[in-house]
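chain below, 391 aa
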Amino acid sequence: MTQRSATIIGGGVAGLALAVALARHSDWRVTVLEQAPALTEVGAGLQISPNGAAVLAALGLAPELAAASLRARAVVLRDGRRGGPVLRIPLPADGAGFHLVHRADLVALLAEAARAAGAECLLGAQALALDPHGPRPRAVLQDGRTLDSDLLAGADGLHSCLRETLLGPARPAFTGQVAWRALIPGDPDDAPEAQVFMGPGRHLVSYPLRGGHLRNIVAVEERSAWAEEGWNIRDDAEHLRTAFAGFGGPVPGWLAQVRDPWLWGLFRHPVAPNWFLGHGVLLGDAAHPTLPFMAQGANMALEDAWVLAAMLCRHADIPRALAAYQTARDGRARRIVAAANANARNYHLRAPLRPLAHLALRIGGHIAPRAPLRRFAWLWEHDVTRAHPLP
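prediction:
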């Protein structure tokens, strides 16, 4: 059989994971187009749960993940105002595990693996026009180059060029929430735990990165005013400190160290009704943008990449492979997106529900501390590498 080729738009987690899977486990020739001049991302933390870690392990990257991350021991829900614990959810010490990793470090290890497997990564390559129709879809780059291949994969995120080509302009709805993110110096002696400080109409998540030398902060506030959607908007740190002035525990000390945080509005995008057309296909945020309240964006991207590669290896007919991929992924993606939407409400409860809910969590935590983890066993314990093995 003639060697098939894939052009992947986007050099983030989804695109690079697909590049590794196709280049390492099949005879596909892979080219990744990344519009940035380097395969790096603005600093931020990620939580890789067992379902995502299983994909990295199957790609042969478990040692690299372990070296680049901290293995999380627990998730601790805290009362925002007092800072005290409401519920501690211990995480398993065995199995694939939960990992706290800098986004740039995950991208770097995937990029290195993709290149080692034979994939070509073109930097500063912005796609201006995409044509997914026919057996040889085409990408036209800003510099005038054209790339024809057997598959065009859109892993280009929230504002995907290929998604717009397939489905038309997006019509996202503002959630009434904005989020700040920041990195501050950390303490290597801090426990590797994800902490969630819950308050009326707002919450703050924090965890250590890079051996504890950095601390990641994501803070979400309900806001009636519209905010621009985008990751790279700078804000005054005083706005963040003012929004969380009533929070206690370590939060004031953390926020005092924040300089020039990033701010973005949270918008709800529908899951794509169709993930493919012709020989063009979407994965990751391009297919199913999700709010960050289940920490599943990167994990879903890893799952997508694996399943798409598996279907492409299983079916010689590319449209049939793409249809099988959407069938395998659509229902699960929708369930995760819905769970993330629900978590946003749970973290922001106001009186009189808030004290009652916290009391119920405390009592439940004493009786069955692992019950919240078992509640999401459908999410954490799902292993796409076993359900859809690659050759």
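DSSP finds 13 helices and 20 strands in the chain. Residues 318-347 form the longest helix (30 residues).
thats it, cya
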